[in-house]
Amino acid sequence: MFSSCQKEIKNNSKPHDNYTECGGIPFDFSTGALVINEGSFQGSGKVFHYNLVTNTISKNLYLNANCDVPAGMFLQSAAIRQNRVYIVANGSGEIQVVDRNTFEYKKSIQLSYPRYMAFEQSRGFITNGTINGYVYVLDEHDEMIDSISVASGPNPIIASNGKILVGSLGSWDNTLFSTITDSTVTIINPSDLSKKELLAWSKPTDFVEDKNGKVWVGCSGNGQYDYGNDKPPAFVKIDVLNEIVEDTIIVGEAGNSISKIAINPEKDIIYYYKSDGVYRLGINGEYKNEDVFIPTTGLYGIEVDPKSGDVFVFDAVDYSSAGRVRRYDSSGNQVASVEVGVAPNGAIFY
Fold this sequence. Notes:
Strands 3-2-1-28 form a 4-stranded antiparallel β-sheet. A 4-stranded antiparallel β-sheet has the order 4-5-6-7, with no helix packed on it. The chain folds into 2 domains: 120 residues, 7 Propeller (Methylamine Dehydrogenase, Chain H), CATH 2.130.10.10; 178 residues, 7 Propeller (Methylamine Dehydrogenase, Chain H), CATH 2.130.10. The protein is built from 1 helix and 28 strands. It is an all-beta fold.
């Protein structure tokens, strides 16, 4: 059954503290990807540019464009809409909106714990990953206009088939001093903000859409605090048009969870990682029983270049010194390895 949204509007956008107009930076962003460096525990996160032609790095884009004002603490993600880039900093509870071509600051959006963004029908949708889960809605001018109550700990989000899908995996409860787990995918209709909830195995952590318009949910399975409730990692396939779970495919043993996932340009092979490296899963079941595709450890994120199909993995190393991005072709051969900032967790491609 569909239900109407619960109205709750948090603090609306307000100017960046200490911001002074600097005019941005002249830079050709079209040659590569923006690497999101989460930052250390006491430091600020940074955005680097990865030139995909030369395999070189340009550092500190936001700082250089905005008078050395940091983008925020713990950069979680970034997203692009038209001529704007949105940099999500969950540690400082803000989203910096910058010009896509110059990285010049435009405005700041304040939330308690922003995570990820998606866009549909001229609206922006932001997951706010607290125990009392909400998705916040922006209009085409980046003004906050509404909110939708969802299950606890909303995290990944994707636009598909004219709808918005949100994964809730639970959150830490300071009152109970324990983790509240969840396994809900909420499907939102952007037109009227009505919603429907589906049960998706255990802890949905990421989404991709395949060539047939089906959404695949990477589910981590059991977590550190799930004593006595072990579940292996799995992929859940959702028929978005009919709003049903179509299939669930287990990919491994309980305790060896998966996190972020990515898909190739043809949208028929999903990449994911475990503790021992990168694995593949074809949308028709190919590679399900394959050994590790790219042996490696210490991964903190994964992306696929939507043009070349190259696989990029993000190594946080020790979460306090420079991390690395390693690039592989679609056959699993390493192409490059570059040093980046502290705790790199992903990238967006121009």
